[in-house]
Amino acid sequence: MFHCPVNTTVGRGVMPSVKLALDHVNEHDSVLRNYRLHMWWNDTECNAAVGVKSFFDMMHSGPHKLMLFGAACTHVTDPIAKASKHWHLTQLSYADTHPMFTKEAFPNFFRIVPSENAFNIPRIRLLQHFNWTRVGTIYQNEPRYALAHNRLLVDLDTNGFLIEETQSFATEVKTALAKLKEKDVRIILGNFNETWALKIFCEAYKLEMYGRAYTWLLLGTYSNKWWMRRAPCSKRNLTTALDTAILTDLLPLSTTGEMTVSGITAKDYQVEYDRRRGTEYSRFHGYTYDGIWAMALAIQTVAQRVKLKYKEKTVQDFRYRDKEWEQLFLDALSNVTFEGVTGPVRFYDNERKASILLKQFQGDEVGEVKVGEYCAERDHLDLASGDTFKWIGKNPPKDRTLRLIEHTQVNITIYSVLVSCSVLGILLATGFLAMNIHYRNQRYIKMSSPHLNNLIIIGCMLTYLSVIFLGLDSSLSSIGAFPVICTTRAWLLMAGFSLAFGAMFSKTWRVHSIFTDVKLNKK
């Protein structure tokens, strides 16, 4: 016997699987023999006040309930989990993934569905698969996403990743995205709900943070065709920015084909569930089915232990607020192990290591497609169970801008030709300088300002000489000589140009002054 608070939206889709599980448990020959499992349920309407009232009403009416199953909404699960602890009642949730429900804070709370923390390692294994070691993160500043993000940072650091930038947002995302782009973050891990996902990818389109240079890895768990909802940009822009994004999600049912504890396969269960559910559907239906089985097996274990320890007692003698009964149920549920329709079921610190679905958005026409699975029980990434990844370009994006430093050398042939020309120019200038000094008293040379001519020639010689130093590289000189060479380059070229151009300008100014002198003698 157990109490099941459900919410209206999820409840209608899971009730067929609950009833199916109860039928299978009660029909099974070796499970709870001589007992019949019953469920008392109520609709919490996803309202904390309604949920708590329903809980207390059901605790004070009818026979004692052995365990508590639910709820789905966090703001309902939280107060009920706190209340059930004081009743020493073991609780199992089939749909609440909030990471705040830890064993330390809620020792009586278990969940058959993986929490948000469980979606970190699959993304890390993908990063390792594609050799991405430099990443950035962005998360919604709410407890559900912030707590999972904190755990993500720890997991990334433990696995040796470089976290280049971490950004959070509360009311707008443009600033956070701009900082990620400024840091040249190419691989972005995002933790946010689908409403913000629409806004983020619209903004990413404006900032050109998409295409062959970027990859987004999202926490996911969004509703079916969530990108079709109204967004702050056009559908075309949204799907363009979203293209090739990778999302994690709950794996609805196991794909291994293993026989489950109830004697049927996951496919057989799917057929029976579809036959019973009508138009209602919940993504948690498989976890609900396995949750009922986990509780049934736990109750059976308690019944066996009570029978061995207290021959005069049975589970019908269960009482609330009894620590001994509480510990019996906690131990029994902690040690439950079986093959369920969602995969292997076993609890680690009151949480389950479930399989995670990996999806990729491959364009507006195709939408989200399965590209793989991650089995947390075996820490195995299986990319052969889905379609191939789609990339814009031939290969996956790089996690950083590659900066290649190439050591280039001056072509020795070209350098030899230029040095020869420079030496020839220096020799020619030396000849002109000697001629100018030797014939400085000749009338024509004297009239051309020989001293300025000397400065022009010396400037040209220094400029020619700078060509020799400018062409020197590490193959023609030692690394230690480069400080002197670099200084010499600058001074030779600067001094040569200054002397040659300065002297030439002085000569030009002298001629200008002569021809513009207005004080002419007239005869």
Q: Strand-residue fraction?
A: 15-25%
Largest sheet: 8 strands, mixed
**What is the CATH architecture assignment of the largest domain?**
3-Layer(aba) Sandwich
Write down the overall geometry: rod-shaped
> How much is the radius of gyration in Å?
40 Å
Would you give the CATH topology of the largest domain? Rossmann fold
| Helix residue percentage | 40-55%
Give the C-level CATH assignment of the largest domain: Alpha Beta
Trace the largest sheet across and list its strands: 7-6-8-9-10-14-15-16
- Fourth-level CATH superfamily of the largest domain: Response regulator
- C-alpha end-to-end distance: 138 Å
The domain count comes to 3
Helix-and-strand structural type: alpha/beta
Q: For the residues shown, what is the average pLDDT?
A: 90
Discrete helix count: 15
Summary of the model, kept short:
The chain is of the alpha/beta class. The mean pLDDT is 90.
Describe the structure.
The chain is an alpha/beta fold. It has 3 domains: 2-113 and 256-348, Rossmann fold, CATH 3.40.50.2300; 117-250 and 362-382, 3-Layer(aba) Sandwich (Rossmann fold); 417-515. 45% of the residues lie in helices and 15% in strands. The chain has 15 helices and 16 strands. The strands form 3 sheets. Strands 7-6-8-9-10-14-15-16 form an 8-stranded mixed sheet, with helices on both faces. Helix 2 runs parallel beside helix 3 (74-86). The model has no long low-confidence stretch (mean pLDDT 90).
